[in-house]
């Protein structure tokens, strides 16, 4: 027999979306935005839910600040073994480097 569908995951997804949207709204007050993104990471770890790629890439790996190009980070695209995006966090100065596939360009 297969596993039953995880109902807890379906119940917590709207809560996670609300926390992410709140963090986006609070982006101009960094401490509150960081608190919300850390809460989001904590809930995902506690409930063992994977965040989608876009959500993970929009957070700074060092300080958990939500990175929006032109608002809270600098971003530039360059070619090195394919296309890559370099994002520099304005809050902590950390550099996040991501591979970009054809469908994401």
TrEMBL record:
Gene3D superfamilies: 6.20.50.20. InterPro entries: Rpr2/Snm1/Rpp21. One of its GO terms (biological process) is RNA processing. It comes from the Eukaryota. This is Uncharacterized protein.
């Amino acid at each position: 027999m297969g596993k039953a569908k995880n109902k807890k995951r379906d119940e917590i997804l709207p809560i996670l979306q609300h926390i992410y949207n709140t963090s986006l709204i609070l982006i101009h007050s960094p401490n509150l935005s960081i608190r919300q993104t850390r809460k989001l990471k904590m809930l995902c770890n506690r409930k063992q839910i994977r965040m989608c790629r876009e959500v993970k890439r929009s957070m700074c790996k060092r300080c958990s600040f939500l990175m929006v190009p032109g608002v809270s980070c600098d971003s530039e695209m360059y070619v090195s073994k394919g296309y890559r995006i370099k994002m520099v966090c304005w809050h902590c100065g950390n550099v996040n480097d991501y591979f970009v596939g054809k469908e994401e360009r």
